[in-house]
Amino acid sequence: QEYAQVLSQFEAAKAKGLKLDMSRGKPGARQLDMISDLAWILQKPEDFYDGGTDVRNYGVLSGLPSAKALFAEILGTRPEEVFVGGNSSLNLMYDVIAKAYTHGLLHSEKPWSQLETVKFLCPVPGYDRHFGVTEFFGVEMVNVPMTSEGPDMDMVERLVSSDDSIKGIWCVPKYSNPQGITYSDETVCRMAALKPAAEDFRIYWDNAYVVHHLYEDEQDDLLDIISECEKAGNPDMVYE
Prior knowledge:
Strand order of the largest sheet: 5-4-3-6-7-8
Shape: globular
Structural class: alpha/beta
Strand content: 5-15%
Number of strands: 8
Radius of gyration: 21 Å
Low-confidence stretches: none
């Protein structure tokens, strides 16, 4: 009876013939019109040079200097620490996990595909697309409750230090998806100072909402995880 009722509602919705775009986060036409002029700024050959690099050619492996400088300013880090890949951060995150499975990461004893068990810490509620990446590779995902200051760090510290099969933690540190929580200074410092049992444990710091402020005069502050990891003696422990 329940199925018949829901099916009836579904058929009624289809019968309306609506053409709705239900995808998330797409700019509207008015927003796109605001940047249309950018497509025509580059006119002369010299306009296509970034330093000594002609951007019409293959470019630079780690990204154009001006792009690295721009994102370093946005993320609060240094240009030499920035790698500019494609325009999808999720794709870059997927590629890192894929490389870990096929070849291992820095300090990996062997590729993750050769390990009996691989685990990841997943703050919940959390971002479903992150979980989709690790789920695709068959990773055992360990739920860590979110607090008002970020993941439960007592639990994170205990798990990471005692289990060398835990290889990473997903983090959306600013205006977290879906709760909108920004990690406190204490949380960032404790995260940077982790002492993982796995030498190739990494923090996956998806700072996607670094400039997504609702009000100009009301912005959350977030410590720079890269410099905090350096201070704590863990300079290789984070991908931002």
